[in-house]
Each structure stands twice: as structure tokens, then as C-alpha cells.
């Protein structure tokens, strides 16, 4: 491939990826899901504590409540996060958008009635629809309702208040007409679906969209492909993790929260492939490469890059090496760059199906120090798996980095 062809291909690919990454819906999903991180980590910590043997009953109850509030209401938090992100992206009012999104979601969510006796009837929302099963409806509602609401305000489909009215009050009146229209449409949709065999929007979406996507997301081949794609994009100088974040949120997140819900209710997690698993076991690739550079390279350049990178690499930060070596458009290390993450996921998956690694049901921060993240996610078994991943990545990189190191040493000698 000629240099000109390479540049043209890379330019077209960058343009396509930039358009995809900057799409308002894609950015809203990625940023909105990130906002749920604090509450899910709190729930995960509660889950970990509850696994400690011989805890007092009061502590077990407290941990169960913490996990349940985190996982069983996850769709509510997702709606808030996505609606806020979409409103910010569209430069609209966040609070009215969030309230309207929540209102529309609850209109579309079926209410169950319970006979309490003595002519008393209780109405309640089924937590199933507020947890992982309702997440796709929540995501669709948050994104569409907020986008339409902001568009209607932009188009001045609102009450037009006199300039003398304070801005804060005027904005509230601006929300009335678009809010009423959107809310009425949600009511009509809800009533319409009640007349179908599905009974409600949730079961329709779950059957026709969420279940097929969960099947796709539950496949180890999907996970391996996403890991490969993320690093392939890095090869072309594109931040792969940022591009694939929204795809991972759509395909793998519901399985993660289903696991958390199952554990919170005293059940057993069943989904091996989920977003918590991918985040925790993409492998200590950065640290392994930094070790190769510091202790196994003779090139002064590589040695210096390794010393600079060793501390950041403990926290999974690869940019100093990606741009320093460089790894971008470097054909010599194309194979370890693109295969290392997929290999790590494969190792963790095999460890899980043979019964060594427990199915992951807790969320750990992505940038926890290497090995600590594995321990936090799955105890000592997680630590062992990450150590195995570390040596596997080191061995994968070694022959390719030796070749690259030899080339750099020869270049350094020739410039003396």
C-alpha cells in the first residue's frame, strides 16, 4: 500500500469515526452511562462486603439494601444520566428535560395492582422494569424525549413570555407546551400498547430489541471483536475506548446489572460476558508493555519511554507508550497491539467457564491499580487471572518489541 493510499484510507477512517463519536446520541450514551458509575460502585462495594462470612445480621441487611437500591433502580439513574447528557449536548435546559423523561418513562411502565382485602387495593411499579429489564426503554425514552423537547424549544413551540418576565420563570413556561405534547404522546403510546399482545412498551422492547441485543452482547465472540476493534482503531490513531464505550453500554451493560440484581436478591449471577467483566479483565496490558520497555529493551529511547510510562501504566494509562514508541501506524507491533486485549478477555473467559473465576457482578473503577482491580472484582482468583494475563501479554509483545528494539538500537548507533 503506497504512502498516499495509506493517508487517504486513514483520513477517510478518521472522518467516519469522528462523525460516529461526535454523534449526539452516541456521546449522550457514553457520557450518561458514566454518570451512573458512583452509585454502581457503591452498590458493588456493598455486594463485596456482604460476601464476608459471619457478618452480623444488621450488616447483611444494610449491604443488601445498598446493593438493591443500586441495581434494582438502575434504569432510573440511567434516565437521569442520559437525559442530562443529551440536554447538555443540545444546549437545552437539563432539569425540565430530566423531569419530562422520568414522567414519560413512568407513563410507559405498567402499574400492578394488589388486593389488600377489606376493599383496599394497592398500586405499585414492578422493580423488574426499573432494573436491568427496563434499561433499554429508559435509554430510548431519555434520548428521544430530551432531543424532541430541546428541538421544540429551539423551534419556539412554546409560550412566549414578555421580556419583562425573569428568565428563570420564563424558562419554566417555555417547557409547558412541548412538555404537554410529549407527555400526551407518551400516554397515547402506553394505551396503544396495552391493546397489543405485549401489554406494554417494556415487554415489546424487551422481546424484539433487548433480548436479541443481550444475546449478541452475551457472546464471547462479540466481546473479543469489540476488544480487537478498540485496539485496531488505536493503530490508526483513534481513541478506540472512547469510540466503543457507547457500543459496550448498549450490548453488555444490562447483563452486568442483571448479575448485580441476582446477587442482591440472594440468587446467582449467570451472565459471564458483561460490562463489569470487560472493564475488570481487559488485562494489565499497559504494565506488561512498560516492563518490556524498562527491563528488556536496550534502546535508550524505549528505556526512557518505559521509565516515564511505568507509573501511569499501573493505572492502565497507555498514551505515553502509544505516542512515544509510537504504536500508531507501527506495523511491527500490529499483532500484539490488536490481539492483547482480546487475548486477556479470552483468558478470563476460560477461567470463568472452568469454574476458577467467579462470574463478575460488581463494578470496579476502570483505572484502579493493576491487580487490585482483579482482586476487587473477583477476590484472589481475580488477582491470579490478572497475573496470568500480565505474563501472557508480556510474552506476546516480547518477540515483536525485540525486533523493534533492535531497529532502534541500530538507528541510535548510526546517529552517533
TrEMBL record:
It is a multi-pass membrane protein. The chain crosses the membrane at residues 29-52, 58-82, 94-114, 134-154, 175-196, 243-260, 331-360, 380-398. Its main location: membrane. Residues 9-400 form the PTS EIIC type-3 domain. GO terms for cellular component: plasma membrane. GO terms for molecular function: protein-N(PI)-phosphohistidine-sugar phosphotransferase activity. It is found in: Cell membrane. Keywords: Cell membrane, Membrane, Sugar transport, Transmembrane, Transmembrane helix, Transport. The phosphoenolpyruvate-dependent sugar phosphotransferase system (PTS), a major carbohydrate active -transport system, catalyzes the phosphorylation of incoming sugar substrates concomitant with their translocation across the cell membrane. This is Permease IIC component. It comes from Enterococcus phoeniculicola ATCC BAA-412. The lineage of its organism: Bacteria, Bacillati, Bacillota, Bacilli, Lactobacillales.
Amino acid at each position: 500500500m503506497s504512502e498516499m493510499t495509506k493517508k487517504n484510507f486513514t483520513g477517510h477512517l478518521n472522518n467516519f469515526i469522528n462523525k460516529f463519536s461526535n454523534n449526539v446520541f452516541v456521546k449522550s450514551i457514553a457520557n450518561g452511562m458514566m454518570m451512573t458509575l458512583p452509585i454502581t460502585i457503591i452498590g458493588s462495594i456493598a455486594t463485596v462486603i456482604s460476601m464476608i462470612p459471619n457478618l452480623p445480621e444488621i450488616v447483611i441487611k444494610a449491604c443488601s439494601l445498598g446493593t438493591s437500591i443500586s441495581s434494582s433502580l438502575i434504569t432510573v439513574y440511567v434516565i437521569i444520566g442520559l437525559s442530562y447528557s443529551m440536554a447538555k449536548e443540545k444546549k437545552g435546559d437539563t432539569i425540565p428535560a430530566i423531569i419530562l423523561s422520568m414522567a414519560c418513562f413512568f407513563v410507559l411502565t405498567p402499574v400492578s395492582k394488589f388486593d389488600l382485602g377489606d376493599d383496599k387495593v394497592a398500586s405499585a411499579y414492578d422493580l423488574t422494569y426499573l432494573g436491568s429489564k427496563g434499561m433499554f426503554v429508559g435509554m430510548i425514552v431519555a434520548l428521544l424525549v430530551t432531543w424532541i423537547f430541546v428541538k421544540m424549544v429551539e423551534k419556539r413551540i412554546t409560550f412566549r413570555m414578555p421580556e419583562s418576565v425573569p428568565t428563570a420563570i420564563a424558562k419554566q413556561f417555555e417547557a409547558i407546551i412541548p412538555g404537554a405534547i410529549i407527555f400526551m404522546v407518551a400516554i397515547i403510546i402506553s394505551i396503544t400498547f396495552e391493546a397489543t399482545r405485549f401489554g406494554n412498551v417494556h415487554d415489546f422492547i424487551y422481546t424484539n430489541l433487548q433480548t436479541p441485543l443481550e444475546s449478541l452482547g452475551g457472546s464471547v465472540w462479540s466481546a473479543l471483536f469489540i476488544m480487537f476493534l478498540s485496539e485496531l482503531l488505536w493503530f490508526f490513531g483513534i481513541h478506540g475506548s472512547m469510540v466503543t464505550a457507547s457500543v459496550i453500554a448498549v450490548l453488555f451493560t444490562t447483563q452486568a446489572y442483571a448479575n448485580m440484581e441476582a446477587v442482591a436478591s440472594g440468587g446467582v449471577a449467570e451472565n459471564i460476558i458483561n460490562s463489569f467483566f470487560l472493564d475488570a479483565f481487559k488485562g494489565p496490558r499497559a504494565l506488561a508493555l512498560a516492563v518490556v520497555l524498562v527491563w528488556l529493551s536496550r534502546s535508550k529511547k524505549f528505556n526512557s519511554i518505559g521509565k516515564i510510562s511505568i507509573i501511569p501504566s499501573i493505572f492502565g494509562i497507555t498514551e505515553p507508550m502509544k505516542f512515544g514508541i509510537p504504536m500508531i501506524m507501527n506495523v511491527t507491533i500490529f499483532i500484539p497491539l490488536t490481539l492483547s486485549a482480546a487475548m486477556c478477555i479470552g483468558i478470563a473467559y476460560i477461567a470463568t467457564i472452568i469454574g476458577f473465576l467467579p462470574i463478575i457482578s460488581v463494578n470496579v473503577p476502570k483505572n484502579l491499580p493493576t491487580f487490585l482491580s482483579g482482586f476487587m472484582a473477583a477476590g484472589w482468583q481475580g488477582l491470579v487471572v490478572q497475573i496470568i494475563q500480565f505474563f501472557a501479554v508480556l510474552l506476546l509483545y516480547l518477540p515483536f518489541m525485540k525486533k523493534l528494539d533492535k531497529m532502534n538500537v541500530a538507528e541510535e548507533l548510526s546517529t552517533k
